Amino acid sequence: MYFSRVRVNPDIRELSHLHHVLCGNGYSAHQLLWDLFPGEKERTYLFREEIAGEQIPHYKGARGEPIYYVVSQILPTKGNPLFAVESKPYEPQLAVGDHLSFKLRANPVQLDKKVRTIDEIEMWCKRRKDRGDKEKQPTKKRIRHDVVMDAQRHLLYELAEGAGLDNEGEKSDLKRRILDTLLVSKNPEMTAKLKQIIEGNERYQEFLEQRLTAGKLLDMALKAAADSALETWLTEKGKTNGFIIVRDDKRKLLKFQAEGYRWHALPKKGRSAGFSSVDFDGEVEVTDQNLFVNALFAGIGPAKGFGCGLMLVRRV
């Protein structure tokens, strides 16, 4: 395997707006980075985009420009005129018990299965027949749920139902009804529920010491619910990828942080198409070196073709 640092060629950067098009556009970056691996019919690499925060020797004006870290099975070509590529062999030598700081941009989703309707079964069978696939019994439909949005919708639904409010509509509608109720009636049961959610997240408990307005209390509870769901998601990923999140020796808190939730629209794939991403960082302990090294090469979670899944690690 190889680890590469890829930048837009300085000459290209000065003569075009390509770097502005690439910045934050995982789909465009994915398509162009693929050109670094001529002849490859399938994606054989992971990548992560970051923004240069300092002047880099030999790259004048690099501050604020996109940088791509790439892990690949084959060595990327250095003959591409768009990019400047620096590569080195990537052969992590790890053992059980090793502690590593990490950064991970991931697409945290949960997979559910749902029985297909009659129309969906007919469409499913037609697609298989058109592709020339063998006949078989229809499988259940796999549905991906956004972990952050699901956790917050679930909390809002519970709050609305507990207060006897209409729990239909968009997330913003539910939040507005709940906030109106908090402002008008103070609703002690709802207030207690919100504080319970915050108290249940060890990273948010300290906020209860502050005097929070109704709006701030609701926002903080929603953030705590999302944070707890992301912690659960990453913990579950650790079980199958050979790591656990480390706890701080003094405060006994998990060395874990999740922030930067973003929605990335993919208009070329449909009006509502897109994916979410979250930036994780913290410290992990290796519990199975083979599984963990495989995760470093294969990535964690979906949307790998759009800049998610690559875990960057460094020894503590």
Structure description:
The chain is α+β, with helices and mostly antiparallel strands and 316 residues long. The chain has two domains: 2-91, Crispr-associated protein, domain 1 (Alpha-Beta Plaits), CATH 3.30.70; 105-315, 2-Layer Sandwich (Alpha-Beta Plaits). The protein has nine helices and eleven strands. The chain has helices at 10-15, 18-22, 26-33, 118-131, 147-162, 171-185, 188-199, 214-241, 289-298; strands at residues 2-8, 45-51, 66-72, 83-89, 99-106, 109-114, 141-146, 243-245, 256-265, 274-286, 311-315. The longest helix has 28 residues, at 214-241. The two termini are 23 Å apart. The model has no long low-confidence stretch (mean pLDDT 85).
Which percent band covers the strand fraction? 25-35%
The total count of helices amounts to 9
User: Which assembly state applies to the chains in this document?
Assistant: single chain
**N-end to C-end Cα span:** 23 Å
CATH architecture classification of the largest domain:
2-Layer Sandwich
Secondary-structure content class: alpha+beta
Question: How many strands in all?
Answer: 11
CATH topology of the largest domain: Alpha-Beta Plaits
Q: How many discrete structural domains? A: 2
Largest sheet, described in full? 5 strands, antiparallel
Helix content percent band: 25-40%
Please compute the radius of gyration using only Cα atoms: 23 Å
Regions with little confidence, pLDDT below 50 for 5+ residues = none
What would the average pLDDT be, to the nearest integer?
85
- CATH class category label of the largest domain: Alpha Beta
Q: Can you say what the CATH homologous superfamily of the largest domain is?
A: Crispr-associated protein, domain 2
Identify the overall geometry. globular
Order of helices and strands: EHHHEEEEEHEHHHHEEEHE
